[in-house]
C-alpha cells in the first residue's frame, strides 16, 4: 500500500512510477531548452524646461501646482488610446508595453516586452517618439511660449533588449523534483486502490531522548517567544530559529519514513495534500525559471525610494532567483512541521502536552504585548540569544487613535493580532479542561493581546474562530457564552478606555479607510498580472514587495506566485485539515477529545481567514501556525482512527 509495498514489486505501481519519471525527465530536458524567449526594453522620459526659460510669458501648465507632473500625466495617457494602438498595428509593431508615472516627479517610464528583440526596441523607440510629439502638441495648442516649452530627456534606453530568463539548471531541477514527487504520489495512489482499504494506523515507539511531541513544543516556543526579527546572521531571512528547526523536522521525518519508523499512514489525506502542494509549487518554481521575471513600468511600490525606480532584467532576475529559493526553503520548513506534528505525536497525552506548551508560548507573547500596551515598553527587545542578530529594527509599537498598537515578538501589530486571535480557541480549550482557575489566565492574556493590537484582521480572525467554536459547543456552553457577552461589554470600556471604541471605528469607517481603498485599487493590476501566467505562476515568494508592491491579500499573492493550480492545491490542503478536525469532533471518545478537534478546526479556519485580509505567508508566525494547525488536525485524526482500529480490532 505504501513505499514498502511499492518496493516489493507491484507492476501497476511501478508502471505508473516509471512512466511519471520518464515524462519528468523529458520535461526537464525539453521545456527549458525550447521555451520561446522573452525580451524587455525600457526607457524613462524626464520632462525639462529649457535652460533659458525666463520671460514674462509663462507656459499655461506651469501656472498649475506641479505643472510638469500634470503634463507628464496627460502625455502618458496617449499610448493606451485606440488611435495609438491602431497606429502601432499599422507599423507592424506587436510587442506589449506598459506606461508608468512617478507620483512626485515629471517622469514617464516605458517598458516593452515581446518575443522579437528587434520589435521590442522598435516599439520602445516608436512610443518615445509618440510621447515627445504629444508633449509638443498639447503645449502648442495652449499657446505656450517657445522659451517655456518643456522637452524630454531620455534615460535608461539601452540599444538592445534584455532577455527575460531565470536559471535553466534550476528550471530542470524543479521539473525533476516536481515530477518525482507527483509520480510517487500517483504510484502510491494506485497501490492503495489495489490493496486492502484497511490501513495500518499503529505508530511504533519513537520516544527516545527527544520525542516528536517535544520537538513540536520547542517549535511553538521558538516561533512565538523568540522575536521574528532575530535570525542567524549569515543565513538571513530563512535563518529564524523556528524555520531552522522545522527544516530539521523535514529531514527527521524523511529519515524516519524511509527507515520504516512512521508507517501509520502510507498515503494519509495530509500526506496526499502536502505532496500535491509541494509538487505544484516545484512546478511553479521550474516555470518561473523558464519564463523569467521582469518589472512592468506600472507596477512599483507606492512608497519609498524604489517607487520611482524600475528594476532592469538582470537586477530583477537576481532578486527573483533568490526569492524563489527562499520560497522553497520556507515551504520545506512548513511541510516539515506539519508532517512531524501529524505523524510524530503518538498518544492523546502527548497531544495534550503539545497544546499546553503552545498555549503557554502564546501566553508569554501575549503578556509581553499587554505590558507594552500599558507602559510603551516592549520586553521582546531584551531577548538576545548568542548567534542571533536582528534582521531589522523591531519592538516599537505603532500608534492608532492615541493608542499603542502592541507588537510583542511579532513583526507587526497585524501579525500579532492574527496570531493571538487564531490561538484563542486552543487557549479556551486548555482553560475549559483545566482543573485550576489559573488555567483561564492564557485565555485572558491572549484575548487582551488580540484587542490591544487594534487590528481589523485580528478581530475578523477572532470572530470567525469563535463562531466556529460556538457552533460546535453544546447548548449549555452556548448559553453561558451569550450571557458573558453583556458582562464583557460593560467591563471592557471601563478597564480599557478608548480601546473598544477605536476597534469599533475600524469597521464603521471602512469607506474612508485608505488601507481598504488601497487594497481594492490593486485588483485590476493584480488580475492582469495573474492572467499572464494563470496556471502555475512564477514561483513562491517571487512577487517581491520591495520591487513590485505589497498586496494585502494572500489569496491574490498565491494566484500570482503559484497560479490557479497551486492556489487550489493549497486550499485543498486546508480543507483536508478542516475535514480531519471536524471528523475528530464527531468521532472522539470523550468530550475533551472532541473539543480538541473543534478547537484546532476553529483555529485553522481563523488563521486561513486572514489570508484575505493581509499577506499572511510573508509573516513567519502566521505561516508557521497555519501548518502547525494542519499537523495538529492530522495528528488528532490519526489518534482517533487508531483508537477506532483498536476498539474494532
Automatic annotation (TrEMBL):
<feature type="transmembrane region" description="Helical">
    <location>
        <begin position="620"/>
        <end position="639"/>
    </location>
</feature>
<feature type="transmembrane region" description="Helical">
    <location>
        <begin position="210"/>
        <end position="232"/>
    </location>
</feature>
<dbReference type="GO" id="GO:0016020">
    <property type="term" value="C:membrane"/>
</dbReference>
<keyword id="KW-0812">Transmembrane</keyword>
<feature type="transmembrane region" description="Helical">
    <location>
        <begin position="596"/>
        <end position="614"/>
    </location>
</feature>
<dbReference type="InterPro" id="IPR051533">
    <property type="entry name" value="WaaL-like"/>
</dbReference>
<feature type="domain" description="O-antigen ligase-related">
    <location>
        <begin position="444"/>
        <end position="571"/>
    </location>
</feature>
<feature type="transmembrane region" description="Helical">
    <location>
        <begin position="479"/>
        <end position="500"/>
    </location>
</feature>
<feature type="transmembrane region" description="Helical">
    <location>
        <begin position="274"/>
        <end position="294"/>
    </location>
</feature>
<feature type="transmembrane region" description="Helical">
    <location>
        <begin position="12"/>
        <end position="31"/>
    </location>
</feature>
<protein>
    <submittedName>
        <fullName>O-antigen ligase</fullName>
    </submittedName>
</protein>
<feature type="transmembrane region" description="Helical">
    <location>
        <begin position="414"/>
        <end position="433"/>
    </location>
</feature>
<dbReference type="GO" id="GO:0016874">
    <property type="term" value="F:ligase activity"/>
</dbReference>
<keyword id="KW-0472">Membrane</keyword>
<keyword id="KW-0436">Ligase</keyword>
<feature type="transmembrane region" description="Helical">
    <location>
        <begin position="525"/>
        <end position="548"/>
    </location>
</feature>
<keyword id="KW-1133">Transmembrane helix</keyword>
<feature type="transmembrane region" description="Helical">
    <location>
        <begin position="554"/>
        <end position="576"/>
    </location>
</feature>
<feature type="transmembrane region" description="Helical">
    <location>
        <begin position="244"/>
        <end position="262"/>
    </location>
</feature>
<feature type="transmembrane region" description="Helical">
    <location>
        <begin position="171"/>
        <end position="190"/>
    </location>
</feature>
<feature type="transmembrane region" description="Helical">
    <location>
        <begin position="354"/>
        <end position="375"/>
    </location>
</feature>
<dbReference type="InterPro" id="IPR007016">
    <property type="entry name" value="O-antigen_ligase-rel_domated"/>
</dbReference>
<dbReference type="Pfam" id="PF04932">
    <property type="entry name" value="Wzy_C"/>
</dbReference>
<feature type="transmembrane region" description="Helical">
    <location>
        <begin position="445"/>
        <end position="473"/>
    </location>
</feature>
Amino acid at each position: 500500500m505504501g513505499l514498502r509495498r511499492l518496493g516489493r514489486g507491484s507492476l501497476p505501481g511501478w508502471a505508473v512510477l516509471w512512466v511519471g519519471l520518464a515524462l519528468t525527465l523529458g520535461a526537464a530536458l525539453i521545456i527549458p531548452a525550447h521555451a520561446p524567449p522573452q525580451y524587455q526594453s525600457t526607457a524613462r522620459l524626464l520632462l525639462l524646461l529649457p535652460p533659458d526659460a525666463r520671460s514674462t510669458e509663462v507656459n499655461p501648465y506651469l501656472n498649475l501646482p506641479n505643472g510638469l507632473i500634470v503634463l507628464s500625466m496627460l502625455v502618458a495617457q496617449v499610448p493606451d488610446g485606440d488611435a495609438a494602438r491602431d497606429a502601432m498595428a499599422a507599423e507592424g509593431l506587436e510587442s506589449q508595453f506598459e506606461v508608468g508615472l512617478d507620483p512626485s516627479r515629471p517622469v514617464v517610464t516605458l517598458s516593452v516586452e515581446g518575443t522579437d528583440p528587434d520589435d521590442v526596441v522598435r516599439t520602445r523607440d516608436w512610443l518615445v517618439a509618440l510621447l515627445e510629439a504629444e508633449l509638443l502638441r498639447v503645449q502648442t495648442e495652449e499657446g505656450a511660449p517657445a522659451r517655456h516649452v518643456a522637452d524630454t530627456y531620455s534615460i535608461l534606453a539601452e540599444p538592445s533588449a534584455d532577455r527575460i530568463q531565470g536559471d535553466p539548471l534550476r528550471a530542470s531541477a524543479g521539473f525533476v523534483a516536481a515530477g518525482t514527487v507527483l509520480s510517487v504520489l500517483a504510484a502510491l495512489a494506485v497501490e492503495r486502490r489495489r490493496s486492502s482499504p484497511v490501513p495500518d494506523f499503529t505508530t511504533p515507539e519513537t520516544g527516545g531522548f527527544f520525542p516528536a511531541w517535544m520537538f513540536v513544543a520547542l517549535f511553538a516556543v521558538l516561533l512565538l517567544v523568540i522575536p521574528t526579527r532575530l535570525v542567524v546572521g549569515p543565513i538571513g531571512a530563512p535563518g529564524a530559529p523556528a524555520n531552522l528547526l522545522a527544516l530539521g523536522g523535514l529531514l527527521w521525518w524523511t529519515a524516519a519514513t524511509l527507515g520504516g519508523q512512521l508507517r501509520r499512514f502510507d498515503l494519509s489525506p495530509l500526506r496526499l495534500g502536502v505532496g500535491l502542494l509541494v509538487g505544484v509549487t516545484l512546478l511553479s518554481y521550474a516555470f518561473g525559471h523558464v519564463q523569467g521575471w521582469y518589472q512592468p513600468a506600472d507596477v512599483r511600490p507606492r512608497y519609498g525610494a524604489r517607487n520611482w525606480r524600475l528594476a532592469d532584467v538582470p537586477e530583477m532576475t537576481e532578486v527573483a532567483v533568490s526569492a524563489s529559493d527562499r520560497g522553497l526553503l520556507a515551504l520545506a520548513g512548513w511541510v516539515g512541521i506539519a508532517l512531524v506534528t501529524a505523524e510524530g505525536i503518538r498518544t492523546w497525552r502527548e497531544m495534550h502536552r503539545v497544546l499546553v506548551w503552545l498555549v503557554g508560548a502564546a501566553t508569554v507573547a501575549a503578556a509581553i504585548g499587554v505590558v507594552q500596551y500599558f507602559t510603551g515598553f516592549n520586553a521582546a527587545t531584551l531577548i538576545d540569544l548568542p548567534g542571533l542578530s536582528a534582521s531589522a529594527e523591531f519592538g516599537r509599537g505603532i500608534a492608532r487613535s492615541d493608542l499603542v498598537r502592541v507588537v510583542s515578538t511579532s513583526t507587526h501589530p497585524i501579525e500579532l493580532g492574527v496570531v493571538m486571535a487564531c490561538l484563542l480557541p486552543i487557549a479556551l480549550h486548555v482553560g475549559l479542561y483545566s482543573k485550576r482557575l489559573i488555567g483561564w489566565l492564557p485565555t485572558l492574556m491572549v484575548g487582551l493581546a488580540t484587542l490591544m493590537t487594534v487590528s481589523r484582521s485580528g478581530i475578523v480572525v477572532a470572530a470567525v474562530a469563535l463562531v466556529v467554536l460556538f457552533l460546535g459547543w453544546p447548548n449549555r456552553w452556548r448559553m453561558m457564552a451569550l450571557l458573558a457577552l453583556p458582562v464583557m461589554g460593560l467591563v471592557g470600556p471601563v478597564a480599557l478606555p478608548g480601546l473598544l471604541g477605536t476597534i469599533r471605528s475600524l469597521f464603521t469607517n471602512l469607506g474612508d479607510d485608505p488601507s481598504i481603498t488601497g487594497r481594492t485599487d490593486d485588483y485590476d493590476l493584480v488580475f492582469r498580472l495573474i492572467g499572464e501566467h494563470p496556471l502555475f505562476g512564477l514561483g513562491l515568494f517571487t512577487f517581491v514587495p520591495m520591487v513590485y508592491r505589497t498586496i494585502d491579500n494572500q489569496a491574490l499573492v498565491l494566484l500570482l506566485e503559484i497560479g490557479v493550480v497551486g492556489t487550489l492545491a493549497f486550499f485543498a490542503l486546508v480543507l483536508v485539515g478542516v475535514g480531519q478536525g471536524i471528523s475528530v469532533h464527531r468521532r472522539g471518545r470523550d468530550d475533551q477529545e472532541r473539543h480538541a478537534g473543534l478547537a484546532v478546526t476553529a483555529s485553522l479556519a481563523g488563521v486561513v481567514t486572514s489570508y484575505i485580509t493581509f499577506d499572511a505567508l510573508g509573516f513567519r508566525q502566521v505561516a508557521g501556525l497555519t501548518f502547525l494547525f494542519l499537523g495538529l488536525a492530522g495528528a488528532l485524526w490519526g489518534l482517533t482512527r487508531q483508537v477506532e482500529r483498536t476498539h474494532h480490532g
